[in-house]
Amino acid sequence: MRVAMTKPLFAWDCLEDSPNLKTIREFLAAVPDGKLLEALRNWRGHGQDKYPVHTLWGTLLLTVLLRHPSIEACLADLRRNEALRWLIGIESEARVPKPWNISRFQVVLGQEPHLSLLREMFDTMVQTLGEVVPDLGTHTAGDATGLNARRSRKKNTSDASDVPDALPAPAGGRKEYKDDDGKVTKVVEWFGYKLHLLVDVRHEVILAYRVSSTKRGDNEELPALVEQAQANLPEGRSPLGSRRIETLAYDKAADDTKVHQRLHDARIKPVIQNRALWTGEPERMLPGHDGNSNIVHDERGTVYCYDKVSDPPVRHPMAYIGHEAARGTLKYRCPAMHEGWPCPSQNRCNAGKTYGLTVRVKQEIDLRRFPSIPRATKQFERRYKGRTAVERVNARVKIFWGADDGNVIGAARFHAQVGTVMVSNPAGFAVHIGLATLLASAPRREGTLGKMRLSPIAKALHEKRAG
Question: Cβ distance 10 to 402 under 8 Å?
Fold first, then answer.
């Protein structure tokens, strides 16, 4: 893997379609799977050990890393590639596991305590990156996507909904896309689960993930995603002692009062489009103003002032000055005075005022309506575009690394599959975060004939691994 010095820290386009043995070995060394393997060995006890757990686990990782379309394809590759077998501790072709051995292993991997250890492995790797990459997680974005799965044919399995503390069973999902007029333009249906992600906008690294039933709303899962991401990232250097996460972008699915309150308590600025709920009412009086005032707001929280001298009255958006965090208010001023254009209501509104009419809107009136970054600002538009990073990450997870296989049967196997993708594939997101670590620690190439050298972040990661 050759990464140029001019490439981003996480150069996803530099990943090899066919990783060489050195890259595979470095990837396997970057995955902190010691606790998981120990737990799996304890679970097996004194049972048959023809196929050790580290070889079964390594097979799952290689399936995702090498982008094999199925477990059978990976096993066939292991049978004909001796060097690859040695990397995961398989001594001979006869010791290569059978497909049903991997299938049974996935069922075990998708149950407690192994499922929690998969998530802990993912969290550990994110924490390591967060310690050496100062801006990781500063600006984030979230989204949910559908993953196809199949229900187990067996009864009384771990995916049965009547089993206490069982994993959610796959179910039918439906998502509608609407235009500005509320008309449905597209419908997507699937059978399986929902994958909820919270990613870093700049680096496109997953900070937190959850797998839920298709019946769960994005607004219900987002607080848990935020909690996981906050725990994975060290606190920032703000005088208020705030967390590192500054903004979070999401679509209308997260426009919920509880979500806005949770983000407000965490001092995270929401960049969330609002749902259209007002019917036949384009604007309302700003609380604290009576009928004699000329200040109103619309459903998006944009504040306007009326020029009542003109006939008919003319509405102008007020000039947004900034967010006053200490006061918990949004500050607006007269747009004519701020932008320097004549207004017939100049004397009525701005008499004796140096900066013109000033309005402070208390956010506590409605956190959904009046977020810290108002929706009618360029900053909101710029931050909201960061959601495209989630779409690219979704594509890698589903298509590049095969999380959306569609042939995984049963809840336990499916959760194990997603866990490996996150760190790799059936064991979660190991492959994603493992490759992110690999990219950040890779030496950089300077020029056509230049030498390879480590960046400061790569040096820090190598030191942590050595320690």
Answer: no
Q: What average pLDDT values come out for the chain (467 residues) when binned by 10 residues?
A: 67 73 86 91 82 92 86 93 93 93 88 88 87 89 87 54 56 82 83 90 90 90 93 63 80 93 94 87 84 86 91 92 94 92 87 85 93 94 94 83 66 69 46 68 64 71 71
Tell me which residue range forms the domain holding 219.
Answer: 117-272
3-state secondary structure of 159: coil
Asked whether residue 163 is assigned to any structural domain, the reply reads yes
Judgement on whether residues 218 and 199 belong to the same structural domain of the protein: yes
Q: Which residues, at least 6 apart from 133, have a Cβ–Cβ distance to it below 8 Å? A: 9, 203, 440, 457
Q: Is residue 399 part of a domain?
A: no
**Whole-angstrom distance, CA of residue 262 vs CA of residue 269:** 11
Distance, in Å, from the CA atom of 462 to the CA atom of 169, rounded to the nearest integer, reads 41
Same domain, 261 and 305: no
Place of tokens 């049965």: 160
Q: What is the pTM of this model?
A: 0.83
241 and 161, same structural domain?
A: yes
On the CB side of 150, CA atoms within 13 Å amount to 8
Per the structure, the count of domains in the chain is: 3
Domain assignment present for residue 405? The answer is: no
